Amino acid sequence: MIEFFGLCVQNLIKCIKYLFARQVRFSSIITQAASISYDSLPISLIIAFIAAAVITIQVSKQFLMSGAEAYIGGTITIIMIREIAPGFVALAIGARAGTAIAAEIANMQVTSQVDAIKTLKVDPVGYYFTPRILASAITVPMVVVLAEFIGILGGMVVSHAAINLHPARYMNSVWLWLHTRDIYISLLKASIFGILIALVCATQGYETKGGAKDVGISTTQAAILSTVYMLTADFVINLIFYIAK
What we know:
The chain has one domain. Helix 1 crosses helix 6. By secondary structure, it is an all-alpha fold. The model has no long low-confidence stretch (mean pLDDT 88). It has nine helices and no strands.
């Protein structure tokens, strides 16, 4: 784990140098953005809606029995923005797009396409990693914002269906509890998660050696490592902004 973390840091530094050398093509970033986030949008929004619906069902009856049903909207909003939306969306994108990144680069590595790039005096890490990292860092927060909106809306629909909570009372609680600071932290989380997804999965794919069997093993390992790194980053961010503030 320590050695792999060091490889990730080294690759990130190479990508930053490649970026400041202005060698990244805008078209490559757009292509990767579509592959990473746009194609993952349906599953991300479905997961956000279902997660919000389940949480709403769990808390609605308890809030109603204690006379605190007016706080359901604020509770769902805080849960969605602080944790569920950025975390679940990142896991969904990592499972779908992250593994695809790892498999693609691993396949390039075992079929000697990476060596062909080197013969052209092009840095393969900068060439392959940078567009993916940039696209992921920029577009994952966009997906998270949509997921937050869908989750809050889903909570409103389910609370109305479950305990007949009026949408106006639900939304009033949302506006009372919602703070711009939470939104900023959520977007920061999403951007960091996006960088980790692309960086970890691309690094795992780049380090693949062998044949087709090793590509499959590397892809599975990329999914595991990206999840571990995202959860660790999530803990550190929460520690900094919510516990140690």
